[in-house]
Amino acid sequence: MRLFRNSGIIGIAESALTFALEASRDSHPNEYMGLLRGEDARKLGLEESGTVLTDVLIIPGTESNPVSATVKTSMVPNDMRAAGSVHSHPNGVLRPSDADLATFTKGDVHIIVGAPYERDDWQAFDREGEPIDLPVLDVDPPEEEFFDFTQEDIDRELLPSEEDDRGGWLF
C-alpha cells in the first residue's frame, strides 16, 4: 500500500528544492541523484490534504559521472514517506532520457534539475515522464530528532532494574 496514492503530492518545500539545487551545483560536472520524502500537509500547518515533499535523501554509495548517476538499491531505506527522486542533468536539458524513464517506476514525482542550477532550472515529472506543475511551498519541515533521548534514558537502558526468573536482568 502506497502512503501517498490517495491524497497526492501538492508541492515541494522551498528548503527541499534549495537543497536539491545546491547539491546538483556541488556535484557538477557529474550528475546528482537523491530520493524525495514527503510529509502530510496538515502536519506542516497547511489546511489541504496531501503530501509536501520536504526532504532529499542522499543515498550512500551513489556513483555518478557527467552522464549518469547510479544509486545502490541495497542502500535505499525502506521508507514509508518515500515519494520519488531528484537528479541533475549537467547539460541543462530538463527532459527525461530513456534511462530516466526506466527509473521513474517507483515514486509519484521525479524532478530533473539542470545546469546552471538556478531557481527556475528544474521540472517535475510523473512516473510516465509527463511534466507536471509542482508548486514550491513556504513551509518549515518538521525537525527530525535522531537523538531524542536524555542521559536518564541511557542510564535506564544500561543499568539493570531487577533480576528476572532465569537469573538475568530485566531492562
TrEMBL record:
<dbReference type="InterPro" id="IPR037518">
    <property type="entry name" value="MPN"/>
</dbReference>
<dbReference type="GO" id="GO:0046872">
    <property type="term" value="F:metal ion binding"/>
</dbReference>
<dbReference type="InterPro" id="IPR058877">
    <property type="entry name" value="JAB/MPN_dom-containing"/>
</dbReference>
<dbReference type="GO" id="GO:0006508">
    <property type="term" value="P:proteolysis"/>
</dbReference>
<keyword id="KW-0647">Proteasome</keyword>
<dbReference type="Pfam" id="PF26422">
    <property type="entry name" value="Halo_JAB_MPN"/>
</dbReference>
<dbReference type="GO" id="GO:0008237">
    <property type="term" value="F:metallopeptidase activity"/>
</dbReference>
<protein>
    <submittedName>
        <fullName>Proteasome lid subunit RPN8/RPN11, contains Jab1/MPN domain metalloenzyme (JAMM) motif</fullName>
    </submittedName>
</protein>
<dbReference type="GO" id="GO:0000502">
    <property type="term" value="C:proteasome complex"/>
</dbReference>
<feature type="domain" description="MPN">
    <location>
        <begin position="10"/>
        <end position="131"/>
    </location>
</feature>
